[in-house]
Each structure stands twice: as structure tokens, then as C-alpha cells.
Amino acid sequence: MPTDQGINSYGGYYFGFCSLISHVLLAGITAAIVYKCLVLKLVHTAGHAFYCTIAFVFFMGEALLVRNSTKLESWLGPLNLNRLHAALGLLAFLVGVGGIAIKTLQKLDRKREDPNATVRHFRSNHGFYGIIGCVLLLGSVLTGLPLYFISCGNAFKLIHRFFGLAGFLALMVSQMFGYNTGFGRRQWKAHQQKLFKFFTFIATVTTVNYELRRFVRDVFTLAASGIFGTDEVEARDEL
Q1: Fewer Cβ close by (within 10 Å): the C or N end of the chain?
Q2: Using one digit for the tens of pLDDT, what is the confidence trace for 72-81?
Q3: How far is residue 109 from each of residues 41, 115, 119, 233, measured CA to CA in Å?
Q4: Three-class DSSP labels, 78-113
């Protein structure tokens, strides 16, 4: 029967492998889409896709990954790791909002040019999950900032982590729906769209699985401490 130390060791290898896969996929997906958008000279929807992919896929995904990296923590120190996590999260929000603003302004310009044109925004699955993800990401930023200035309880930290997790999931769902948009169909063949969806799904799962596991565990720990008065917290697996 495996010992507790052996189980934690296996868990560390598993989550470490998932983290490696996440880094590779997040960088690969971002590089492929960014390259296509640069070829298109960031004209029209290409500008929107360029900034939103960098922000919501790469910056947001890396913000989640680096926060749970014990190797980075030992190298940078807890304070600098938190700063890196915060910087990536803030960049995700600011750059992503810029990408959404580009698309919004394009639609408004089209409406001004042709008042009879049917312009829909945030009504498609891609737009709906995108704006929901942005709102959740804003919640993550607003709840993360106080953590640097005041001592907050575990419940407040869990709220911050919930916003971050839920925001990333919503934004990655939006990304997958984005491959079905007119821009996605024009730029990539059907089998390429399927590959993008597949790799985006795998990147989503491998990025959130460790943080989601810790989040659920810590929710139960917090609930147990409130009910039974216990403060036990399980140590993190090595990543």
C-alpha cells in the first residue's frame, strides 16, 4: 500500500507534468494565433483576436500556473512570486479590455456608417462568455489588490481565487467558441479549428486542475474550521 509520502510524490509528478503541458500549449496556441493576426496586420477582427488571445489565454493562464509553482517560489521568493502573479493578472485584464474595446469600436463604426446594419455584440456564445469572463477577471483584480495592503482572512482569499478560476474558465470557453466565428472560419480550415479547440480544451484542464483541487480542498477546510474549529491545511504538492 502506498505511503502518504509516496502518494504526495506521485501527485507532485502528475501536477508537474500537467503544468509543463499547460505552459507548452498556452504558448503554442498564443503563438499560432498571434502569428496569423500579424500576417493580417491586425486589421479588423485580427486586432481583437491578437490582444484577447495574449491576455486571456497566455497572461491569464500563466497567472494561475506561476502562483502554484513551488519551484518558482523557492527561486523568486514568496513576495516576488506574488508580484509576478499580480502583474500577469493585471496585464490580462488591461490588455484583454483593450482587445474587447477594439471590436466594440469596430461595430460602432459599422453602425454609424450604415444605420440599417444589424450589429450584434455580446449576444453570441463567444461574446457572452467573453464579457462574463471579463467581469469575473475584474472581480479577481479588485479582490487581489487589497491582499497587498491589508491582512485578509482565508474566506476573502477564496473569493479572489474563485473569481480568477471562474474567469479563466469562462474566457477559455469564449476562446473555443471564437474558433467558430466568421473570423475563425475564414482563417482556418475545419480540421484546424478542431485542433485549436482540442488543444485549448486540454490547456484549460491542465491549467486549472491543480488550483481547482486546492480550491475545493480549502473550501472544505474553511467550512470544517468554522464548524469543528480545526485549522488543518494539507501541504501543497511539489510542482
Answers
A1: N
A2: 888 989 889 9
A3: 19, 10, 10, 54
A4: HHHHHHHHHHHHHHHHHHHHHHHHHHHHHHHHHHHH
Task: Give the integer Cα–Cα distance in Å for 94 and 79.
Answer: 22
pTM of the model: 0.86
Measured distance CA(90)–CA(124) in Å, rounded = 26
Classify 129 as helix, strand or coil: helix
Q: Of the candidates 135, 71, 68, which has an alpha carbon nearest to the alpha carbon of residue 100?
A: 135
All cell numbers assigned to 109: 463604426
C-alpha–C-alpha distance, residues 235 and 239, integer Å: 12
pLDDT (tens digit, 9 = 90+) per residue, 82-112?
Answer: 999 999 999 999 999 999 999 888 877 776 7
Return the closest-CA partner of residue 52 out of 105, 97, 90: 97
163 vs 200: CA distance, rounded Å: 20
Q: Are 95 and 89 in contact (CB under 8 A)?
A: no
